[in-house]
Design goal:
Helix content: over 70%
Strand content: under 5%
Distance between the termini: 114 Å
Structural class: mainly alpha
Radius of gyration: 42 Å
Number of helices: 34
Mean pLDDT: 76
Low-confidence stretches: 20-24, 421-470, 637-655
Largest sheet: none
């Protein structure tokens, strides 16, 4: 083709014709005529060659297109190795078609072949023309792969090239700024965003760039500059709703850092109104509402966040926390499932582990709760956490490990006493009190819903459920737990000191009064014990705990028939106190020689026992009845380990 084109020029054709003239003497024509004939011949030859070349190119292009389509189809089916082979052939046939190289690079990225993907894009970029519309997206693809390789400097260079080639497009600016931000190169990132501001006048781009400048300033510690930039972004008009929503949420976050919670709340409300499908903004609103007004106010926003992000661990954690404080049983059930699911998704989240343990305690599953708490035991940070020791105390208490529970509550007391008192929050009760209301007792005589023997109760609410949160509430809970466990672990003198001190502030606390009466009785001060129980009885004459220990005290003072009559009703009704009532009833029956009835009653108690300590206790009593050994002093069912256990718990006297 090049030779024919060269020969078409008149001077070249003229130089070639004379020799041809000598070889064709029969042609009695002039020289110019011969040259014209020769030129026409060359035109025909050139046309033939052009058609032939075009046909070859057309066949190559059709084959490349066919290979390309088959490669894309294989990629869609997940057959990446086959797709790579087909796309590689197609790209090799038409190396100037950059789109094919991009597709090949994407398939190689899917296979994890990042170096080969880079090679494909670089080869395609080198073969493509500057005006190719695929160059800009190809450069963005190359920069993204370089970042995945950890070569951010190379990625920044590629993005800079993309900006130089297409300064009117903004995507490379955003990515270059984010690359600099990832390496804390704040001045470089700010330079990129300011350059973008100087070259683009679109309202959306201006607001977005200002919000990013605010973010860079905040991360670099220039808080006033950050707030100034975000206010400028808020002042820009004509901003798309989703971008405006993001800027409002960013403004709220900055205002919170400046202690302007009310203004932050207003911005968050605007944010969710502009973009109701953004679960993260609903979660931020719920979090702030909970901190400012309590869980009840946060629930609507929290439900929306849970609907939009059902598997986000932080959303699930807050959902478990707030729903667990709801008065609706369905909400409390969902709270438990949310915590369990979140813990399964993120078992390394220690705060979530503690919350899950508290919920398990609220559902009367102390064994599982203790297993979770044991996982936190060796971590130094949790040794200084009051909630951890409170939860551990409740778990051990429910498992009838009273000496260990006493020490756990003592650790909680020491930590809570050292913390500054927090202001009262609007929630109706502390979460820790809600989770640990293991001996909830109705003031009108209803029975506890707990299986614990030494339930910590306060006038129908949790141990410290006085509508407070913070150090004061936790200290109250810890002191109450320590006092009750001092009784159950045999530290009666210590118990009387603690309980008397608590009763100065909580004069009408039925549980504390009852346990103080038990401690006084175990110290031999029966008259004092009777007066304290009488005070509790006047406050709540039909309270199950009062009825139980009135019968127990009657039994200790020799009034067996009175004890038996007063305990019968409590021993026949379902409830958490039934097992202790059966214990007192069995002892009373033994006192009057009715062994068969005592054996029946104690077998019922054994069937209700859920802990090893209680089972061992009732089994030992039944064995003594069978062997004719004298019964021990009257005592409601408590933690009593097998005699082989060398433990202080096993040797201390019991109330």
């Amino acid at each position: 083709m090049r030779l024919a084109s060269h020969c078409l020029r008149s001077d070249t054709a003229g130089r070639i014709v004379p020799p041809a003239w000598w070889f064709a003497p029969c042609l009695h024509r002039g020289r110019d005529e011969v040259v014209d004939v020769f030129k026409r011949f060359l035109f025909m030859l050139m046309g033939f060659l052009l058609i032939q070349s075009s046909c070859r190119r057309s066949q190559t292009g059709r084959r490349a297109d066919d290979l390309y389509r088959r490669g894309l189809a294989a990629a869609r089916k997940g057959q990446l190795a086959r797709a790579e082979a087909l796309l590689e052939q197609a790209s090799g046939l038409v190396p100037k078609r950059l789109g094919m190289w991009r597709s090949l690079a994407k398939v190689r990225v899917g296979l994890g072949h990042l170096d080969e993907a880079v090679q494909a894009l670089e080869r395609g970029l080198s073969a493509s023309r500057a005006a190719d519309s695929e160059r800009y997206p190809a450069l963005l693809d190359l920069a993204a792969i370089r970042r995945r390789q950890g070569k951010d400097n190379a990625a920044a260079a590629v993005l800079g090239q993309a900006i130089d080639e297409q300064p009117g497009k903004v995507q490379a600016y955003w990515r270059l700024g984010a690359t600099y931000e990832a390496h804390s190169q704040w001045s470089e990132a700010s330079g990129v965003y300011r350059k973008l501001l100087s070259q683009h006048t679109s309202h959306g781009i201006e607001a977005d760039a200002l919000s990013r400048l605010a973010r860079v300033a905040r991360r670099s510690g220039r808080m006033e500059q950050s707030l100034s930039s975000i206010r400028k972004a808020l002042a820009v008009s004509g901003v798309p709703a989703m971008l405006r929503s993001r800027i409002e949420a960013q403004a709220a976050s900055l205002l919170l850092l400046h202690k302007e919670a009310d203004a932050a709340l207003a911005h968050l409300r605007k944010s969710v109104a502009l973009d109701a499908g953004n679960g993260r903004n609903w979660f931020s609103l719920a979090t702030l509402l909970r901190e400012r007004m309590g869980c009840r106010a946060a629930l609507p926003a929290l439900r929306k966040a849970l609907q939009l992000m059902p598997k986000a661990p932080d959303v699930m954690r807050l959902g478990a926390l707030c729903l667990g404080m709801s008065s609706d049983s369905k909400d409390r059930e969902r709270s438990y499932h949310l915590a369990m699911d979140a813990h399964h998704l993120n078992p390394s989240d220690d705060a979530l582990t503690l919350l899950t343990a508290e919920l398990l305690l609220a559902r009367q599953q102390p064994g599982q709760a203790k297993a979770l708490l044991d996982g936190l035991e060796g971590k130094p940070a949790w040794k200084a956490n009051v909630r951890y020791w409170l939860a551990r105390g409740r778990a051990l208490q429910a498992l009838d490990r009273h000496l260990a529970a006493y020490h756990a509550y003592s650790a909680a007391v020491a930590l809570a006493a050292a913390q500054p008192v927090q202001p009262i929050q609007p929630d109706g009760a502390a979460w820790s009190a809600k989770a640990g209301r293991s001996g909830q007792m109705a003031r009108g005589g209803g029975l506890s819903q707990s299986g614990q023997s030494g339930a910590v109760v306060t006038n129908g609410r949790g141990a410290a459920g006085q509508g407070m949160r913070g150090a004061a509430s936790m200290l109250d809970q810890a002191l109450a737990g320590q006092a009750v466990e001092a009784v159950w672990s045999g530290r009666y003198r210590r118990a009387t000191v603690l309980l008397t001190s608590l009763l100065r502030r909580r004069k009408d606390d039925i549980t504390l009064l009852v346990h103080l009466a038990v401690a006084e009785a175990m110290l031999g001060r029966m008259g004092r014990a009777a007066r304290i129980l009488g005070r509790a009885e006047r406050l709540s004459p039909h309270n199950g705990l009062v009825v139980l220990y009135r019968a127990w005290l009657s039994l200790r003072t020799g009034r067996t028939k009175v004890a038996l009559e007063s305990i019968r009703d409590l021993a026949s009704r379902p409830g958490a106190l039934r097992i202790q009532a059966l214990d007192v009833m069995g002892q009373a029956l033994l006192r009057i020689g009715r062994k068969d009835e005592a054996r029946t009653v104690l077998n019922q108690a054994l069937g209700l026992a859920r802990t090893k300590a209680k089972k061992a206790y009732f089994q030992s009593m039944l064995q003594k009845i069978g062997t004719g050994q004298p019964s021990h002093k009257p005592t409601p069912a408590v933690s009593r380990r097998p005699s082989s256990a060398k433990s202080a718990d096993a040797t201390r006297p019991r109330p």
